[in-house]
Give the backbone structure.
Amino acid sequence: MSELGRIAAAEAAARLVEPGMRLGLGTGRTMEAVLRALARRVRDEGLAFAGVPTSEATSARARALGLLIAAADAPCDLAIDGADQIERGTLRLIKGGGGALLREKIVAESAGRFVVVADAGKLVDRLGIGFPLPVEIVPFGHEATARRIAGLGGAPVLRMRAGAPFRSDNGNLILDCPGFAPIRDPFTLERVLRGVAGVVCTGLFLLPVERALVGYEDGRVEELR
């Protein structure tokens, strides 16, 4: 993981923001760098935009940096977010390592443009290898839901934090599913998982990505389309 690459890609993403935009703000370490870059533009250039955060953590951090926050009631002009994996050639994604996958997907699907920011370590030839697919589920009957997903081959593991089940901002649980790797047909997998009662959202992001800004250790940023 390259911190310099992450920062370079984040700064490139921040330069895409235009005055007056409604901007979807993703969640995670890379987005922290994007928020800092946006705050510098606000301070140095007087850039004005309304940010739509995808998590309580992003909302709190954006407010602390003095960024204007808006509700997710209208479409965004642009959404910027990180990714846990980016598939070369397709720009299909796995997201959800930070637990904000549902809100991230809602904001991304509402946006006219969706841009992904990552360091080069997030590029993969096939989704799922080296990172388990997150699946957000409702708490009611979660063991039954997990058994259904296990029957599909997902080998689900309930995500824990500080000795207790992790809860998303929506109050839901997350199953991390390494058993689906390699994910050769993500569209079918998405459809099958969404057909399981209790599944709210998966970490498969298959919507069109305008571009992926990928940062490298030497500060170079590669733009993938």
Remarks:
- Residues 29-45 form the longest helix (17 residues).
- The chain has two domains: 3-123+206-216, 133-202.
- The two ends are 22 Å apart (CA to CA).
